[in-house]
Structure formats: C-alpha cells, structure tokens
Amino acid sequence: MLAVFLSLCTLASAQQVGTHEEEGHPGMALWTCDAGGCSKEMKSIVLDANWRWLHNGQYTNCYKDGDWDKTLCPDPVTCALNCHMEGNSEKQYKSTYGIQPVQDGIELDFVTTTKYGSNYGSRVYMLDDENHYQMFKLKNREFTLTADMAKMPCGLNGAVYFVEMDADGGKARSGGTNAAGAKYGTGYCDAQCPHDMKFMNGKANIVGWNASHDPPIGSWGICCAEMDIWEANSRATAYTPHPCSITGPYVCEGTECGDNSEDERYDGVCDKDGCDYNHYRLGDKQYYGRGNGFTVNSKKKLTVVTQFITEGNTDDGDLIDIRRFYVQDGRVIPNSNISIAGMTGDSVTDATCAAMKTAFGDINDFARKGGLKAMGEALQRGMVLVMSLWDDSDANMLWLDSDYPLDKDPSLPGVNRGPCRTDTGLPAYLRDKQLPYPRARVRYSKIKVGTLGSTFRAGGDEDDDEDDIYGDDRRLSEVHI
C-alpha cells in the first residue's frame, strides 16, 4: 500500500474499553480446502481502531477535529491509560461506516453520512474468536476470494491483503496499556510504516503530532511485512509482496521509517515499493477493465486465485514464486504475460522482479529486504487478513491506475500504470456529492484458503452483476470510472 487511510475527524482509536456501546462483529464465512473438498466455517470481522470514538470513559473526547486533548493526553502512556475506545453495534457498522454482510462476504461503502459527519472508506480484519485475529500461514498454499469491482471508479482502491500483525492486536506487547486488543481492531501495521495510527504498541502517537496534515500524523510509524493480494478499482489492479528486515510490528522513528525524504525511502526497514504485478504497467492494456473487450471484465464478479509456490513444494521450502489466476464466466483465466521489451514471465519471482526494476529504472529494494524468501518467512509466521476501501490523499492513487510519478515522461517504461486521468484520484473530487462516486462500494466474498489447486475450479458460480449505478458508457466516460 502506498498511502495511509482517512477516517472521520471526530473518531479515533483508543486503548481502554468504553462502556456506552457493546461491540458487535458482523459475520463472514471462511472456507478451508484440500484435495477432498472445502469446509465452511463462520468467522467475523472487526473495524480498525483508528475509526472509533475515543473518550475519557464518559463523554469528553480524547481526540477531536484531528488533534488530541492536551489534558487527557500529556504524554503517550498517560493518554493510553486515560482514553477509552468505544464499541460499535452491528447496526452501527452499517449506518456509520457502511460495512454490511452480503451473501458469503461483506460490502464496504465509500461514503456513509450521519448527523455527526461523513465517513470515507473503512478497514476491517477477520477474527478467529472474539479476542484474536484469524492467522493465515500461506506458504505452499493458495488464497482465493471473489470480488465485485463494478462500482469502483478511478482513484479508489478496494484492497485485500495480509500484514504481520499480532494475533491479539498487540495486547500482550503493550505491557498493560492496551486493554482493547483484537476485539476492537488494534495493532495495525504495514510496509508503508503508517504514521496516522493513533496508538502503537499501547502508546499514543502524540509526539510531533501534525493535525494539519491529511490525514493527521505523528512522529512514530508502525512497520511490518505486507502481502497485497488484491489492490484494484474497475480500471486497474496489482498484486504486490512487500518484505521487511524486521519481524512482526515494529515502531519506527526517523530514517528507519523510510519516509523523511525520498533519499531515505530505501533506508527504512520495509520495502515500500514492493514488486508489483500490474497487468497494465507490464504491457497488457486489454487484460483487465470495464467491459467484454477485456480478458477479465471488472463489471462482473471475478474470482482471484493467488498461489504461493515453495522450493520443493513443501511448507518449509523457501518461497520462490507467487502465481495468479482468475475465474470468470466459468473459465479459469491464466495471468497476463509481461510484454515489456527484454522481459518475459507471468508471475512474481525474484528474477522477474529484478528485471522489472531494471527496465523501469527503479531501485531494487525488494531484493535488499530479502525478496521472496523474506516474504515467505513472514507468510509462514502467520499474517492477518485485511479488507479495505480507501482513497489516497498522498498520491491520489496514481501509482495504481494512472501516470506515476508525475515528473516522469508517461512514455517511459513503468510510468503508465493504468488508463485513468491524473486528476480523477483527488479525494475532493471523489467525495463530490454531485458525482456518483460517494455511492461507490466494493464486495468481497467466498474467502478460501487451502492446498494448491483446491480452492477454485472451472464452471464457477459467480452471480450476474447488478445494474450499474454509473449508467451507460457515455455517462461512465464522463465521470471517469
């Protein structure tokens, strides 16, 4: 992920537990598969702590309008002890955050408006039980999901990915200052070392807090390995491993965060660029997009299959390849082939990543941080499933679906990443109520994990897509879906 999330300015994360509302977790199914078939088990999801109301145990806000209450939060530890994180009922998940169950999955809405203001996007995690995240160990396994991207325009990102969070949400790691834990969605980290997380390892991120930044950020970042399975809108998509040189959640500051300046980007503990397999960027501009003229039609439901291949096909072998398939209209569709001069391949390997970095003139920080071997080690230790919908105040999602960076000639290899205009990813544009974007949403369903070849088949059962809220092709062109 190349940016951090936005949340309601009146809501925040906390470490103690509020008593005004009992936390309720919407249900979500998980299938576990092998050669004998698949078994279904009901799990649940939890909203990230950064979206929650934070108060003093009564009704005084610890955090409001992007800033901390200086009395309640004079220092990181006192703030964590003073401030309580409020629960949300399942009804509030839908009415406040636009999160609701659908058949075998969940829907995330982009904009949800209440009398308190508007919420933009969300991030949720799969729970194993009430107090622990479901931990996935994916080496020598495959992971499959069905995605509905029809109502996802340029500039938005519907993301399904794994990060090396603690199973208990960092509760044990905090030394007692985090009483909320996984039940309330605490403990997030990723390879971008986000600075907008309000609590890290049980301490408030108030040092150097910049309330004028969008979103507000503190001096600390929280880093961990990240495997992006699915980052997409209806125009572009990519899957990307991001290895790190550290294990588990790591609080960074300064150079080790890799974000003080472009010169220090590659001095941090995580590979922020990753090795992204973006069909459009790698030369196949007709592989994924809106309509029957594309190999994979994003206006219809599609099943995404990701395989983690190890040396010797064993659980303890090194990760050597990350492969991708799609299933749509009953057909198993192979991944696109790279069509960049001097390059071949159709999956993520260390050799392909090295060739890609050379062709695009990028620094191979992926190799510096250990490449697929390091990514596989994180996958084997166990990672948490994240599902989100977000817009991008840092780079307007150009890194996914348009020309990026803007100071480079779009004709250079690797700069053109998708067909979207460079102005359609502005959050202010996406949130304009005069356009249909606020009605955007994504659906994720039929989450499956299992042995290689066990989670998908030809003749799939994808439902027909619904009527498109964006109208006909002429209207679609006007609003730059």
Give a verbal description of the structure.
By secondary structure, this protein is mainly β. It is built from eight helices and 30 strands. It has helices at about 75-80, 90-95, 350-360, 365-370, 370-380, 400, 425-430, 475-480; strands at about 15, 25-35, 35-45, 55, 65, 65-70, 85, 100, 105-110, 110-115, 115-120, 120-130, 130-135, 135, 140-150, 155-165, 200, 205, 220-225, 225-230, 235-240, 250-255, 275-280, 290, 295, 300-310, 320-330, 330-335, 385-390, 440-450. The strands form seven sheets. It has a 17-stranded mixed beta sheet that branches. Strand 26 and strand 27 form a beta hairpin. The longest helix has 11 residues, at about 350-360.
What's the CATH H-level superfamily name?
Answer: Glycoside hydrolase, family 7, domain
Structural class: mainly beta
Q: What's the CATH topology label?
A: 1,4-Beta-D-Glucan Cellobiohydrolase I, Chain A
Write down the Rg. Answer: 21 Å
Beta-strand proportion: 25-35%
